[in-house]
């Protein structure tokens, strides 16, 4: 399968984020994570619950349940029964994430999305991140504004019960978020460990790096013919 694109590798890596999650609410934000969650649901993780973002639980275009967002906030989010995949404008060595502002928060050089649900997500259930362009502008020594809560801040605040930072998938590879630092788990085919290191400001653990698996023929068929026949994925990751 030499024609597999980098975007398709990223979709499979995002699908793998949900392996073993079972019957929880998957909340992927963005095209590549959404394709990954749907691919996982259609193949190796059939019990995943996928929402339309408002009130319905859906599967392959069919409505299979009703769960308004207020109920999500009351009964799902605070009890560790959700796995969200968010974006990140900055991530630092401690696992803190920023989607709010670049520069001093009192007078930012660039205003971004704002805090949104990042603090509540990261202290209440499993959280992963998707970064379409792995660079030193994203992987920084210290984020300008803390939105997603890292390990040290969660520990100091006593918010560790459901604090579960999991993975970062990028266009270059997959990294594990850990209290003792960030570890490079795999590089996508065609990417070297040096490529990742050179595009990361801080030191990462590269002691045991594998190669991200390619999609199976069945996964590739589902992705190309069913989930994304217009190849929108390749516009996000070239």
Automatic annotation (TrEMBL):
The keyword Protease does not apply. GO terms for molecular function: CoA-transferase activity. Keywords: Transferase. The keyword Transferase applies. It comes from the Bacteria. Belongs to the 3-oxoacid CoA-transferase subunit B family. PANTHER family: ACETATE COA-TRANSFERASE YDIF, CHOLESTEROL RING-CLEAVING HYDROLASE IPDB SUBUNIT. This is Acyl CoA:acetate/3-ketoacid CoA transferase, beta subunit. The lineage of its organism: Bacteria, Bacillati, Actinomycetota, Actinomycetes, Pseudonocardiales.
């Amino acid at each position: 399968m030499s024609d597999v694109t980098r975007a398709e590798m990223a979709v499979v890596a995002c699908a793998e984020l949900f392996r073993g999650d079972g019957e929880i609410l998957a909340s992927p934000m963005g095209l590549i994570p959404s394709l990954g969650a749907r691919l996982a649901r259609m193949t190796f993780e059939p019990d995943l619950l996928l929402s339309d973002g408002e009130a319905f639980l859906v599967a392959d275009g069919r409505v299979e349940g009703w769960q308004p967002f207020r109920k999500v906030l009351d009964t799902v989010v605070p009890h560790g029964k959700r796995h969200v995949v968010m974006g990140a404008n900055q991530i630092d060595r401690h696992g803190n994430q920023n989607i709010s502002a670049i520069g001093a928060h009192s007078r930012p050089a660039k205003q971004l999305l704002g805090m949104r649900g990042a603090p509540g997500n990261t202290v209440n259930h499993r959280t992963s991140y998707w970064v379409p362009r792995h660079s030193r502008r994203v992987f920084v020594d210290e984020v300008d504004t803390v939105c997603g809560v890292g390990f040290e801040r969660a520990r100091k605040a006593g918010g560790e019960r459901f604090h579960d930072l999991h993975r970062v998938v990028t266009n270059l590879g997959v990294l594990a978020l850990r209290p003792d630092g960030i570890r490079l788990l795999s590089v996508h085919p065609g990417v070297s460990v040096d490529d990742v290191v050179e595009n990361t400001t801080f030191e990462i653990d590269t002691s045991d790096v594998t190669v991200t698996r390619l999609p199976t023929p069945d996964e590739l068929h589902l992705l190309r013919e069913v989930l994304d026949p217009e190849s929108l994925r390749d516009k996000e990751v070239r």
